[in-house]
Amino acid sequence: MAGNVEDYSKVAARLVELRTFSDYTTEQMAQMLDISTEEYESYESCKKEMPINLIYKFSSILGTEPKYVLNGVMPTKETAVVVYDGKGVSVKRYDGYSFTSLAADFKCKSMNPMLVTIAPTDTPELVEHGGQEFNFVLEGELRVIVGDKDYFLRAGDSIYFDPSLPHAQLAMGGKEAKFITVINE
């Protein structure tokens, strides 16, 4: 599907291009992202895929759009963006976790709405990022871990939380879950 991120090597090449163009070393970029140099270099060399929260942070540091880092295209809309069913920019974060950006083509976003699909798994990946986060469950059951607390949500339930705390979402009941997340950086 057009707009999807399928070849991470192209994302890695843009990481190198943008960092180099901005005159940062890998050590400086790692420090600004608050990760080790080795971890950052693993993203540029395609040994690991950079998590979406770091792509957003990377984009913010360099004054570019996450859409450009993900697929090489700058947003073009200033007044409104319509995303028809199945036509957003889709990203597979890891096996069992994918999302579709619902505003990728909007310039200078102050929030990032996404449709997330998550399969049941035993080991959620805890992440941390700035801003605030809102999740609204559309289908299935979702366990949301925020810090040292677990919240159990069903279709129609929502949670608003501080994503600077380690957090993760986990599909429950042996079935896939879908939810809308809105992140304000």
Describe it for me?
The structure is a single chain. The chain is an alpha+beta fold and 185 residues long. It has two domains: 8-71, 434 Repressor (Amino-terminal Domain) (Orthogonal Bundle); 110-184, Sandwich (Jelly Rolls). Helix content is 25%, strand content 30%. It contains five helices and nine strands, in the order αααααβββββββββ. A hairpin with a 2-residue loop joins strand 1 (89-94) and strand 2 (97-101). Helix 2 (26-33) crosses helix 3. The longest helix has 14 residues, at 8-21. The chain is globular and about 45 Å long.
Gyration radius over CA? 16 Å
- Biggest sheet strand order reads 1-2-3-9-4-7
Tally of DSSP β-strands: 9
Judged by helices, strands and strand pairing, the structural class is alpha+beta
Which CATH class of the largest domain is shown? Mainly Beta
Helix content: 25-40%
> What is the overall silhouette?
globular
Low-confidence stretches: 1-5
**CATH superfamily membership of the largest domain:** Jelly Rolls
Strand content: 25-35%
The number of domains is 2
**Which CATH architecture of the largest domain is right?**
Sandwich
The span between the termini is: 28 Å
What's the layout of helices and strands?
Layout: H1 8-21, H2 26-33, H3 37-44, H4 52-62, H5 66-71, E1 89-94, E2 97-101, E3 112-118, E4 132-139, E5 141-146, E6 149-154, E7 158-161, E8 167-172, E9 177-184
Antiparallel strand pairs: 1-2, 2-3, 3-9, 4-7, 4-9, 5-6, 5-8
Quick recap:
By secondary structure, the chain is α+β, with helices and mostly antiparallel strands. The protein is built from five helices and nine strands; from the N terminus they run H-H-H-H-H-E-E-E-E-E-E-E-E-E. It has a six-stranded antiparallel beta sheet, with no helix packed on it. The chain has a three-stranded antiparallel beta sheet with strand order 6-5-8, with no helix packed on it.
